[in-house]
Amino acid sequence: MDKHSLNPILGGIALLAFSVGMHAQTSPPKKTGTPKTLQEAPAPRRNLSGIWDAENTMEGINPRGVASHAPFTAWGADLANNAYKPGDGPRRVSVGLVNDPLDSCDPAGFPRNLLFELRPFQVVQTSDQVLMMYQYQRVWRVIWTDGRELPKDPDPSWYGHSVGKWEDDFTFVVRTVGMDERTWLDNAGNPHSSEMRVEERYHLVTRDSMELSVKIDDPKTYTETWVARDKFRLKLMPANTDITEMICAPSEAEEYKKTMAIPLSK
Known about the structure:
The chain is of the alpha+beta class.
């Protein structure tokens, strides 16, 4: 075979190589399985660490109280209808008659801090605790994860006594008892007793999305167990988010009563 007869073969090989090269340059890149956005990234296993905030800010603040609750017992109805005078909700009174403990800068307490004014909060995990630090009133909670049981006869406190455990790799369950009866559940003046037991469920959905559910079990105040927050969406904030100071100052609260609340009630 002479060199002239090789030309068509060599030419065909060159053309094929050129075609393959062009196809490699113009074909779409292969999918690597990497999420396109942070929202699609998988949730970390057994890790709530970070700064979280309500996905819907107004639902987090929730000024009118929980959307619905179980029927009151006679004890609960008497407290709600006769003792508590809220500034919002179905039993709202004029501003000068409100006796919400927050108006005097008492602690919001638990679980009111999850049902009203739910602002950014930071979660820090240690080997035997989960710490939750809230912007509103600049307070923190300790949730024990060392396997201890809840106290059987706890001394009432503003934020109760909490223990938590991982139900699975993405669901952290917290049980709390021993809440002080002086706190309200929300801005609408829904009451609770010291016998109340609260269950929180934090379910990691993606890298930056989490669902919060809050269940109330208080047979002295309500005729049945009920859910106050149902899969409420939380979003992960940037790591450099600055949780601002949000403190109720008694002197400022007293000035508000003198200049606003009392004159408006006359």
